Amino acid sequence: MVVLSKIYTKTGDAGETALGNGARVAKHSVRVSAYGTVDETNATVGLARLHATGDMAEALKRISNDLFDLGADLCTPDRHLDAGLSYTPLRMIEGQISRLEREIDAMNEKLTPLRSFILPGGSVLAAQLHLCRTVCRRAERLVVETATMEDVNPDAVRYLNRLSDWFFVAGRIANNDGKDDVLWVPGLTR
């Protein structure tokens, strides 16, 4: 259980932070940047939730919770040492990925295939979901970079990859099931 009785601890004043396993690392480390960008993705989801209703709002709420799970996973490195910890670390699992895939497939059934790239916009919710998508892609790049240097749960990468696709399709749903998508016109302003 998390207990936050004191918000500032002063332990990070020298530019270091603690990982979930207690190790101290630089705040600019790629791992901290990766889970920090996952947190940023979650903040954009919070903005999108302000404009969502019904099933979309519920899905975004689940995703927001998943992103906290993902942050917990990423802040506790060395999966192969999990047994040596005094607690069981939270890890992303296949079920979270397959849920996103099912939701993408269900949303995609309502959409006509694209014949052009789309621009962010249309509705406020669609624009917010495209912002979620781009920040999510940045988080994915940082997690992949972390994985080239340190141990990272492969399901963490897969989740982010699928989530950015989810945001793209959800953005189309938010645009009147794709009818109000803003299409890219190559060279329009030449």
* Mean residue pLDDT: 92
Q: What is the CATH superfamily label?
A: Cobalamin adenosyltransferase-like
Arrangement of strands in the largest sheet: 1-2
Estimate nothing, just give the exact number of structural domains.
1
The largest sheet is: 2 strands, antiparallel
Helical content band: 40-55%
CATH architecture: Up-down Bundle
H/E series: EEHHHEHHE
pLDDT < 50 stretches: none
CATH topology: Hypothetical Protein Ta1238, Chain: A
Percent of sequence in beta strands: 5-15%
Number of strands: 4
CATH class label: Mainly Alpha
Which of globular, elongated, flat, extended, rod-shaped describes the shape?
A: elongated
Distance between the termini: 58 Å
GO molecular function: ATP binding; corrinoid adenosyltransferase activity
Family: Belongs to the Cob(I)alamin adenosyltransferase family.
Organism: Tabrizicola piscis
EC number: 2.5.1.17
What do you see in this structure?
- It is found in: Cytoplasm.
- It comes from Tabrizicola piscis.
- InterPro entries: CblAdoTrfase-like (IPR016030), CblAdoTrfase-like_sf (IPR036451), PduO-typ (IPR029499).
- One of its GO terms (cellular component) is cytoplasm.
- The protein has 190 residues and is mainly alpha-helical.
- It has a single domain, classed as Hypothetical Protein Ta1238, Chain: A (Up-down Bundle), CATH 1.20.1200.
- It contains 5 helices and 4 strands.
- It has helices spanning 30-49, 54-74, 94-108, 124-147, 154-174, and strands at residues 16-18, 24-26, 118-119, 182-183.
- Strand 1 and strand 2 form a beta hairpin.
- Helix 1 (30-49) runs antiparallel to helix 4 and helix 3 packs parallel to helix 5 (154-174).
- The radius of gyration is 18 Å and the shape is elongated.
- The termini are far apart.
